[in-house]
Amino acid sequence: AVETLSHMRPLRGEKLMIVSNGAAPAALALDELWLRNGKLATLGEETLQRLRDALPGSVVPDNPLDLRDDASSDRYIKAITILLDSQDFDALMIIHSPSAVAPGSESARALIEAVRKHPRGKYVTLLTNWCGEFSSQEARRLFSEAGLPTYRTPEGTITAFMHMVEYRRNQKQLRETPALPGNLTANSVDVHRLLQQAIEEGATSLDTHEVQPILGSYGMQTLPTWIAGDSAEAVHIAEQIGYPVALKLRSPDIPHKSDVQGVMLYLRTATEVQQAADAIIDRVKMTWPQARIHGLLVQSMANRAGAQELRVVVEHDPVFGPLIMLGEGGVEWRPEEQAVVALPPLNMNLARYLIIQAIKSKKIRGRSALRPLDIAGLSQFLVKVSNLIVDCAEIQRLDIHPLPASGNEFTALDVTLD
């Protein structure tokens, strides 16, 4: 992120041109570009003919442009100069693999000088990937000093490019008249008061029960939750709210309740509730004796038949700030593989785009639910999350999981706020 923000020039479009001295690294870059729904530039006939005239017959003018593994720095510069003369692409990615014919630092110096001298050099969005962790250290230093972004892998280079593409798309949509739902509610004064009170009390993490009024102030529904100090109180609450119920461990020292089997669902009798409550507490004392136990959360069982289980997470990046991530639920959460990411603030257009992106990239899979996913309703939910995060800088992390989506109903069952 630092490399991208500090060195990459703003994008004027999304079409990428790839130049490499080997088919394998170019293929890795291309696979990652397709995976992230990127766009490859198409070279015009004039550019193709100039490349044919300037390069050996073994080089086929195309995109990616494979200069072959015997490419010298001179061959690189000929190709890149012709490409810089054209208007066929919006960003240029140059890959170099270690070669006896063209050492990495020599090729890097030649490229830096060629870009510096070319009339369009200062305006072109350029990304470099000099492969080889140790052999390319000098080249990467030269690029950094020259103000050109450089990355260690083809995939990492594409990831950086697509981050800028997403940023450009978001900025474009934000310049439009923001589409915001008319029924948004937000009471930031009350939320700031609740967060400040928690900070003064030394709390670093809030659970579902404590987060209820915070989300509620921004129009988000959570499943009603009660706190029981022991199994007897859990039974009493269950009798009051009706069966079946769910019991969940309440401990600031155990972030993942499933690690100690701290969640018990579909408890239908007082005996089941008492046994489950005692079992949860006993397991914690045996397997995690140092953990503080602040009782149990008691909830009515939500009707999740036919619902799609989603997860919405907000985390802070040291450079970009808050990131809103959307994906499916599950015990194992790998956001780089299972979620799409957006930068707040979100309006309805941006939220809808994020959801469509999640569906197209199969981060949210198609399901035969009783009622189909309400994209407008989920967009509205994401806008509310965005408004909360923008208004409340105290929030460092928010994890809403599971978030069952059934028709236009979005009720958070479990929430953690740091």
Automatic annotation (TrEMBL):
<dbReference type="InterPro" id="IPR013815">
    <property type="entry name" value="ATP_grasp_subdomain_1"/>
</dbReference>
<protein>
    <submittedName>
        <fullName>Acetate--CoA ligase family protein</fullName>
    </submittedName>
</protein>
<dbReference type="InterPro" id="IPR016102">
    <property type="entry name" value="Succinyl-CoA_synth-like"/>
</dbReference>
<dbReference type="GO" id="GO:0005524">
    <property type="term" value="F:ATP binding"/>
</dbReference>
<comment type="similarity">
    <text>In the N-terminal section; belongs to the acetate CoA ligase alpha subunit family.</text>
</comment>
<keyword id="KW-0436">Ligase</keyword>
<dbReference type="GO" id="GO:0016874">
    <property type="term" value="F:ligase activity"/>
</dbReference>
<dbReference type="Pfam" id="PF13549">
    <property type="entry name" value="ATP-grasp_5"/>
</dbReference>
